[in-house]
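Hello forum,

I keep getting stuck at the same step: I have a sequence, I want structure tokens, and every attempt I make locally crashes halfway through. Rather than fight my setup again tonight, could one of you with a working pipeline run this one for me? It's a single chain of 313 residues.
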Amino acid sequence: MGSFHVGGEPKSLQGKPLMQATLAVGGVPVTMDPNGDYVIGQMYAQYFLGGDGRRPPILFWHGGGLTGACWETTPDDRRGWVEDFLLDGWDIYLCDAVERGRSGYAPIPDVWPAPISQTAASLFVRFRIGHAETNTTLENLAGHAFPGSQFPARQFTQFMRQVVPRWSHTDEQIMAAYHALLRRIGRRSIIVCHSQGGMFGLRSAMEAPDAVTAVVALEPASVPLEKARQLGYSTPTLIVLGDYIDTDTRWPRIRDRIMQFAAEFPCVQVLSLPEIGIKGNSHMLMMDKNNMEISGKVRDWLYGMAGADSARP
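Reply #2:
Ran it on my machine without issues. Output:
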């Protein structure tokens, strides 16, 4: 196990005024010169290599406002997908996308404008955990969970502790860093991605098809359908959808686009959990109470996928 950073590019600032800063409480002020060179757009990756090398590595890519921590464990301290796949003999790479978590962000306001922050109530509703008014307090959200919800709603405060700000203009920097990761690994890989990360996983399969052997997209928030039509798409892909989609104004439109993608490209399979009797799942499928059941469904698909070279242990 270990870690590294990939991607990024030098950025130079000139003509900025000097400023005074105190770097520690009670410390001596120091003159700071912001002029000079920086590196921005880099990405942090962690690896856990426990397999025998016969299978493609698994790359876990998170969604918007989150970091790779969402794959590590659940808000109520159950096993996450990283451990589950690692125990099943897969090599794992876990990422914090550009401008998130340990990747850091560009400390230059005129290069990286202010980020978007999301309230607890807005995420509770958008991630289809339950219905709540925008002014519902954090401690009262659990009482608004959908009956039968699989998300551990009583630990929603714990979930909010891992939510981070996000930027809305950095897609190309994020994509460039993911391509750098694929080059660094140097092996055809399986991308397991979620929400905003779904678009990056699907784009990677389109833009670097020789580096991606399969994509598993948990509720991708966007499907680059036009790019797929332009570049073609032949990567085996599983898209997993949870429950309560029709309770939201946005998610039915996302689902329609996903179904259109699957209709146009035979390599794409959609697994709607409610349609196979698995009900109550939120947008945070890897954290829901039945996350191990869903992980098992994903691994069953990977075992059966042609070309995965991944015989069940």
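The two ends are 22 Å apart (CA to CA). If your local run keeps crashing, start a new thread with the error log.
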